[in-house]
Amino acid sequence: MTEGFLIGGGLLLAGVLLRKVAGPIDWSVFAWPVNLIVLILLVAGIGVMYALRRRVYAFEWMMHSSAAVPCLLYAAVLTIVMGLLPQVRSGGIPWLSQMLTFWPFVLIWAWMMVISALAALNHLLRWKVREIPFILNHLGVVVAIVAATLGNADTRSLQMTVFSGSPEWRAVDDEGMVQEPGLAIELHKFTMEEYPDHSPKRFASDISVYTEAGQSVQGVVEVNKPLKVNGWKIYQYGYDSSRGAESEYSVFQLVHDPWIFWVYLGIFMMIAGAVCLMLFMAPKPVR
Questions:
Q1: pLDDT on residue 198
Q2: Which helix (H) or strand (E) holds 200?
Q3: Are residues 76 and 7 in the same domain?
Q4: Max alpha carbon distance in the chain (Å)?
Q5: Is residue 249 classed exposed, middle or buried when 0-12, 13-18 and 19+ CB atoms within 10 A define those classes?
Q6: What's the pTM value of the predicted model, to 2 decimals?
Q7: What is the extent of the structural domain holding 79?
Q8: In this structure, are 13 and 46 located in the same domain?
Q9: Which pick of 30, 31, 201, 244 has the fewest CB atoms within 10 Å?
Q10: Can you tell me the distance from the alpha carbon of 228 to that of 231, in angstroms, rounded to the nearest whole number?
Q11: Is the dihedral of CA 165, 171, 174, 176 positive or negative?
Q12: In this structure, is the dihedral angle defined by the CA atoms of residues 122, 123, 124 and 125, taken in order, positive or negative?
């Protein structure tokens, strides 16, 4: 495993140098259709690596635990650091508070994705029933990582402030620029329930959503219970805290993520793989 730890260390060093020279990763350059092109090249590259595994030692080595274990340890440490430190757009601890744009973090997880893809492909082409958990786990990792990274540039997150009785078409992005998401929201009623100490217990908005195609959808939006319309998820984000239950407006967060299905699919595959592994390892009844 010495080679694995050396390669991981080399990727960390290369990532630090890239961060100093090129700055943080700008995911916007991978917006559609660039991310599709990258995906095609990635799949082709993994296929070539697998085809040449008998001729190139490194490609065959990447399909074994001696490569996977060091990579997993590096990825786990970086992910734990990300989980322990607040991740903010600016400020915080330099580099470590922006892990998703930190080159070492991305390179290590890219290495993990390639290793998982090669291992899954190797077992898939040698199909056996007992290989199902392994294949599901590794393919799930690949699908989730690829979809989450390449789809990041296509994700849109907007905020829309809507006053009661007045449909609103305009929203603002993270940079404060006005955007038109292609739908309007009309607030009919804002509701808030309070605890005895008058702190918010539940707040929700009864709204109608109108699309440019003439579609009209009515529903109630509250925290963690979004309304899905035309590819957008509409979340309850805020209200006039100075007026509480008498707020005359609601603030909504609109999220559009066309790759989210594939992220969920990858997660589901990993869960299914874990379940299959437990079933296959279950002790057989004694007769």
A1: 79
A2: strand 200-211
A3: yes
A4: 72
A5: middle
A6: 0.83
A7: 2-154+260-281
A8: yes
A9: 201
A10: 7
A11: negative
A12: positive
